[in-house]
Amino acid sequence: MILPSYALNMMEKQEEDLPRLPHADQPRLFVMPERQFSRRMFLSTLLGSGAAIMAGTHTAHAEDSLSTSADSGSALIIGGATSSECGRWASLLAPALEEELHLSPPLQLTPTTGWDGITGANLFDTQQQTTPGPVGLMVPGTAILSAMLGGPRIHFDYRRWAPVFLVAQPSVAVGRVSLHQSFRARLTGQLTRVAVSKLTGPELTTVLALDMLGLRPQPVAGHATPEAAMATLQTGQTDVIQLPLDASYPSRIASLQAAGFTPLFINNARPDMQIHQPNLPPDLLTVLQQEHKYSQPAFLLPAWGAIAAACSLRAGLVLPALTQPDSIAQWRHAAEICANHPAIQQAALAENQTILAGTAGIPFYETLMPEPHVLMALRRWFAQSLPRWRDATPPALLSTPPTQ
Q1: What's the per-residue H, E or C state across 80-99?
Q2: Residue 335 in contact with residue 154, Cβ under 8 Å?
Q3: Per-residue pLDDT for 22 more than 50?
Q4: pTM
Q5: Cα dist. 336→94, 255, 339 in Å?
Q6: So which domain of life are we looking at (predicted)?
Q7: Range with lowest mean pLDDT among 211-215, 227-231, 317-321
Q8: Pairing of the two strands 313-319 and 240-244
Q9: Distance CA 288, CA 297 (A)
Q10: 214: left (phi over 0), alpha (psi -120 to 50) or beta
Q11: Which of 11, 121, 250, 358 has the fewest C-beta atoms under 10 angstroms from its C-beta?
């Protein structure tokens, strides 16, 4: 076979460009020494420079993460108005945090509309895409409760937040019903009317508790304040109400007991929480153990614990997702110091509230994040009960906000 001249020239050129392979008796160490050495040096220099840059960036970020967010004027969003529970705690806590964290300029408190905190929580997650983003959020547990129920207004994921400072306060169910239901009483199917602010309000804790006790609760919406709920109980419009364990609880329960009503149980999701009140009824877990020792609900009980924790959360300071661990540690350490300030201690003691600052709030916040099957059981129970509740509730009372 005769090849053309241009093909022979091309083959000779390719043979000249290809590297020369060593013989079998020659070590491979000496193949193209100049080229291997330069490549090795280049890669080592590049990796060393990159590691030095990353280390310097991490060190600078660890030292200046708080000062950068503070110098840029980031806001502390409040899930509610200034006069709300979150607004009062934000105004009380912000100066103490500024002093401990050496923030300059001070935090900008940004209140939002609405009383359930959903608007503020949505704004908090939306503004994380901006520069600078909000430094934190003061949110009530009602917003987290709506997220558990899968509300259509929810556009945030509270499971990604980092808790820093939590204020909790349990509630008590009060009424004139018998917790021990006989078989004949169960066959009659009598409903237990419960005064609630709205069908997705914080009184849902008592509603689910009564359902687990077999008392067939029927929420009566439109009664958002304790005084309004007490009026319905005294006039015979409802059978059970829910009262917060605040400073006014002793006087309220005294007037109700004089009228023949008794406290039924405490909605306390965590028994280790301190409650500074004498003569309190047992918690729901104890009542369930007594009345339903052998037939306790499987998934609704941990679901009740999740919504009970959410409804007892009066205000919670959280940091956004992807916050640096060193910043979270500094904020939690500062929150632990602020929790021991006399003004903050007196504010919590005056309303019989429990402060969970720093790492002490992590177990409580984990209660707000139940397993997926527990969350699905809660939403299934709510979806099955909601049509029956709505049929018995006037449309004007389904979402009546409380009076400020």
Answers
A1: CCCCCHHHHHHHHHHHHHHH
A2: no
A3: no
A4: 0.78
A5: 14, 38, 5
A6: Bacteria
A7: 211-215
A8: unpaired
A9: 10
A10: left
A11: 11
